[in-house]
């Protein structure tokens, strides 16, 4: 999916290529964003735009935990406010680097 909120600057694509899904987990749903790494802006660098696009499709995004896999496949948490606006990145588990979604979700304390 391409972020429609971003624009081209000096002829260069200024959007992230990503896909997302919602996992109905306990105790809260988790929004999982995957960077497709197609050569454009990374999800890491375009996270505000990515979240803005997803907010258009998932109006209650602020009630979800959000994680993403970066262009290297490492999962981190995206801290958002109640409106779904980006606040910060945070390791899923400090000192660990998860490339497995199941392990990342376990580190967050959610089960599906």
Give a description of the structure.
This protein is an alpha+beta fold and 112 residues long. The protein has one domain (18-108). Helices cover 17% and strands 26% of the residues. It has 2 helices and 5 strands. It has helices at residues 47-57, 101-108, and strands at 18-23, 30-35, 65-69, 75-80, 86-91. A 5-stranded mixed sheet has the order 1-2-3-4-5, with helices on both faces. A hairpin with a 5-residue loop joins strand 3 (65-69) and strand 4. The two termini are 25 Å apart. The model is unreliable at 1-5 (pLDDT under 50).
Any descriptors?
five-stranded mixed β-sheet, 112 residues, disordered N terminus, 2 helices, alpha+beta
What's the gist of this structure?
By secondary structure, the protein is an alpha+beta fold. The protein has helices spanning 47-57, 101-108; strands at 18-23, 30-35, 65-69, 75-80, 86-91.
Individual helix count: 2
Number of strands: 5
What's the helical proportion of residues? 10-25%
Unreliable spans are 1-5
* Proportion of residues in extended strands: 25-35%
- Give the SSE order as H and E letters: EEHEEEH
Give me the secondary-structure category: alpha+beta
Q: Calculate the mean pLDDT score and round it.
A: 88
Biggest sheet, spatial arrangement of strands: 1-2-3-4-5
- Major sheet size, sense and barrel closure: 5 strands, mixed
Task: List the topology elements.
Layout (H helix, E strand, L loop, with lengths): L17 E6 L6 E6 L11 H11 L7 E5 L5 E6 L5 E6 L9 H8 L4
């Amino acid at each position: 999916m391409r972020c429609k909120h971003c624009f081209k600057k000096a002829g260069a694509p200024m959007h992230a290529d990503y896909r997302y899904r919602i996992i109905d987990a306990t105790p809260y749903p988790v929004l999982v964003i995957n960077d497709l790494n197609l050569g454009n802006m990374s999800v890491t660098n375009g996270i505000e735009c990515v979240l803005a696009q997803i907010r258009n499709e998932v109006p209650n995004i602020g009630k979800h935990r959000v994680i993403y896999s970066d262009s290297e496949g490492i999962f981190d948490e995206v801290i958002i406010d109640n409106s779904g606006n980006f606040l910060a990145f945070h390791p899923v588990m400090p000192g660990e680097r998860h490339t497995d979604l199941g392990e990342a979700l376990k580190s967050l304390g959610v089960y599906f």
